[in-house]
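2.7 Reproducibility. Because tokenized structures are sensitive to small changes in the input, we list the exact sequence used for BD-FAE-like domain-containing protein, including any N-terminal residues retained from the expression construct. No trimming or masking was applied before prediction.
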Amino acid sequence: MKALFRFLAVLGLLASPGLASAQLAPIDTTGGRYYQPVFANVTVTSGVAYATAPSYTGAAQVLTMDIYQPAGDTVKRRPLIIFAHQGGFFLGSKTDPYMVAICTRMARLGYVAASIDYRLGFSVTGVAQPADTVGVAQAAIRGMQDMRAAVRFFRNDAASTKTYHIYSNYIVAGGSSAGAFIALEIGYLDKPSEVPAYVGLAALGGIEGTGGNAAYSSAVAAVLNLSGATESPSIIEAGNAPLCSVHGTADATVPYLQGKIGGGLLPPKYVYGSGRLNPRATAVGVRNTLRRLSKAGHIPFESNAQYADTTFWTIRDFLRPLLRQAGTPLAARAALATSPVGLAYPIPAREAVQLALPANWRELGDAQLLDLTGRVVRRLTPLAQQVPLPRNGLAAGVYLLQFAGYAPARVVFE
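Resulting structure tokens (single pass, no recycling of outputs):
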């Protein structure tokens, strides 16, 4: 009974206003911020190097991004949106006109926005699977790894120099066309088993890649899918990050429902578009918005002012309510509504925690212990169903033990 009272006391502490304001405070959205363009001007920092990774030919490539900030802003913790451009994994850059336009508009609302360059190109030789293409799938994985590296870059900055005044609990991934494929993968492709074996994920560097800042999580708070698709709707699972999609119903390049992409110089690949992804999100309880652009083609918001406004307003109205919710990175917080993969006890602990894993513990893979900023403070490889987790100098506080694809277990040291 005493242990039960201690457990309830800890739950009360976690919900207390003091802890929420100190560690889990939401974004301040008063005064029209994040809804109206409260900043007249935007400051752009160009060519910021965020990672180095091997290109598809194996050569080291320095990856850079342009960072858009509201000029004169004095807020110290701001939400961030990282955008990836279109181009079929073959063309495009961080300075594409739509990237400049959407980053500028979001920064005028008070966001920090970043437009990234990611690794382009792929080999069209080799053996393709039925209705699939190895090179395109690998290019999408490289792009996902690069965006994950950008997320980790900003989390590292938020924990150290704070150059960009980012609130690391509120980092959003977004993209247009090929960039949306990347954003969808960073949001929902979180287990190696979700990647077809022919892609050769391990040789590419795994889910996270090798872009640096490995001590930080690449989890995102939400996904912005603008005319994108992915290989399977099933990668969207209960507890995942919220999804906002904008897609033309007559898109002949990336299907609104499902079909092949590619043709001509690009090899074909079978994918599922927004008309399949958002219903999947609804079915598994993931918050989502789908803006159908009736009879519109591919990425109409990049050339049509009316569609550009509709897309901007959709993103704005989708994100603003999320900013008012307190918590750890929103994807992880949402996952707490589902059953965690293991039970951590005692709560709270002084010297060590015992983790009881389910019977299929051998299939779970490695785990990460995250603090409430999203920083990885410990990595764990289970060798048995009962796993000891010694404190080893960790500060008092709340941590999340995360296995890929599962809700995290809460760990508390006092």
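The chain is about 25% helix and 30% strand.
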